[in-house]
Amino acid sequence: MVREISAGGVVVRRREEVWWMAGIQPAGVPAGIGGKPATAKAKQVLALPKGLVDPGEKPLETALREVYEETGVTAELVAKLGDIKYVYTRAWGDGERVFKIVSFYLMRYRSGRIDQIAPEMRIEVARAYWVRLADAAVRLAYKGEKQMAQRAMEYLETHPEL
Asked: Which CATH class for the 2-158 domain?
């Protein structure tokens, strides 16, 4: 079984007394459920920015890079939220089973404009946008990412100085 190591971030910003999170709609992921065609009323897939750790790169460096590449915003580390682990089967190429570990970090927005990403990134990201953090656990598509958003909320509730 192949192993992959990735890293990503839950990027938050506070506006008008509400915490918001940067989310992405992955490109090429149909908005329809279970392989059904997407419709105007179909729920859009919401995910967290993340990507593979490059050789010589530390997971935090990857997370910061991926956040910028996939959302257009720069952020700074607040805390590590945790790791999620899962197995998936590649839907492309060799169809190999992959054991994946993704490290997630809580990050605070610093600068940039959401969804202003390089044109070549549109192959990976259809769009990036701000979502209320309180809604993220319901709106995110993947179980592990829902858990990371929940951990981010809990961290922010216990650290009001942020």
From this structure: alpha beta
